[in-house]
Every structure is written in structure tokens, then in C-alpha cells.
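**User:** Once you have settled down, spend some time on the protein underneath, comparing sequence with C-alpha cells, and judge whether sequence predicts the C-alpha cells.
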Amino acid sequence: MADGAVGSRPSGFLLPELRSPVRTIGRRTFDFDRRIAVMAIINRTPDSFFDQGATFALDRAVEAAVRAAAEGADWVDIGGVKFAPGPEVPAAEEADRVVPVVAALAAESDVVISVDTFRPEVAEAAIEAGASVINDTTGIHDPRLADVVAASDATLVITHSLAAPRQVAPRPHYDDVAGEIAAFLRERVDFALSRGIPEERLVIDPGHDLNKNTVQTLELTRRLDEITSIGLPTLAAVSNKDFIGESLQRDKPERLAGSLAAATVSAMLGARIVRMHQVREAVDAMRMVEAILGWREPVDPVHNL
């Protein structure tokens, strides 16, 4: 094969061997041996971590979701309750927040739609409305969630976190942060398999910043290959998080550059989905990583020809 040809083995990069890299999720098919998917974030909450309620109104949430798909997002992740503690949101209210956005987006686009929830009743309603991924940031805290996913065609994202849903883990401690997270994820994967979810419908997420301090999250990111080597597609949810702000002393509106750096490092260590707020910039960054790795052709290669 000629030097630089697409498909050549990237030199110097240790990328994970995925057991089932080709995934059909919803109406799209991904080859995660050659693709890094960008997951956009739509928060239908009044107190969301980053956008502070900017897409809480239904029309704004739908508009933002459709725009994210148009900007090149592969997935759109819709949440009705933030991860951090806050006012109690009943399951019925959470469903009322996310299901209309799912239905509206499914009618407009073939983008993969995921819903960020730990509640089985919300997951079931979202899947019926058109979601094809359930993004559970609690590591299947409620076993019934696994049963709902198993009874559908949906994919489940299994995320590492320590505390019960929406509870604080004060001063989290790890003797071996990456090793302990990898062990947790392996155990939760085994649990999901035991509940009937096939391996080709599982994704793992080490949970950047979730019940982890900045030093722990930075070490986790450096050692992300210990997570990606599990052999399932890994999601890196790094966008605008506090480990970036505290590393750079940047407020939330000023964390784009740090977020892109963290997403790129994660991708080079094997992450195959990156969860990002600023879609256009993230799509460009991941398509550039794919071009460097030799997975895609340049769009307009005329320089010095």
C-alpha cells in the first residue's frame, strides 16, 4: 500500500481491539475501527451543568437537537435530570421533558438518539418514542433498567460512578483509579450480559469527573487505554467539565480548547464516542483525528500538487 494511503496501519498508536466494532444503532451503522462518533448534548433541565437551562424550553431543545444533527453530530444525547444533586424530579416529569424531544428529533433526522436516564420507566418511554441508546450514568443502579434495554433493540451505555443516583460521593478515594474503574465496568458488563443484553449492544464510559476529583480524572484520562482495552466501544464525556476548568483556570464558557484537547487525547487512546457540547468544533476535531490515523481521505487534497 502506498505511503499515507487510507487504511494503512497507523504508526505509533496503540488502539484497542474491539470485539464487535461494527454496530447498527438506530438507523445508522458505525465501524468503530474507523470512526469516532460525536455525541451532542441536549439538556432539558433548568439547572444543567453547562448551559444553565438554555434548552429547557421544548422548542429550544428540539431546535438545538435538530441543529446538532445538521452540524454533523452522529448521536444526540437528551437529558431531563442533571447528574448532580438538586431538586427531586419525578419520573413522570423527567419523561415529559425528554420524550417529546426524542419524538420530534426522530421525525426530523436519522441521527442516533440517546436518553440520559437511570430510571427504567423513562428509558422505556424514550425507546418507544424513538431513542436507540440509554445512557445510564449510574452503572445500572436499578437492575430493571437492564431488563428494559434487554427487551428492546436499544444500546446501553454503562458508566462508572460511585454514589447512588444524584447523591454526592465526598472526597472520593481510589488506590488505583483506572484499575478500579476497569474492574467496575467489567463487573457491570457481566451483569448486563446476565440480564440478556448482548455484548454488541453495550458501550462503556469511565465517567470523567463523576465522583472523581480533577487529579483522579486526569490520571484516568492518561490511562484510558486500560479502559478501552476491555474491548467494547468507550464513550469519553469530557466536554467543559471541571477537570478542564481546574487544570486551566478557565470558567465554563472558556473551556472549548481544553475540551477538544481532552477529547482528542481520549480518541487517540481508544475512545470511540466523545460527548461534546460544541458540535461543529468537535466534529472537525474527530474527523481530523480520523484523517491522521488514515481512516478517511482528505476532502480537498490539492496542496503542493
User: Anything to note?
Assistant: The chain is about 40% helix and 15% strand. Residues 22-293 form a domain with the TIM Barrel fold (CATH 3.20.20.20).
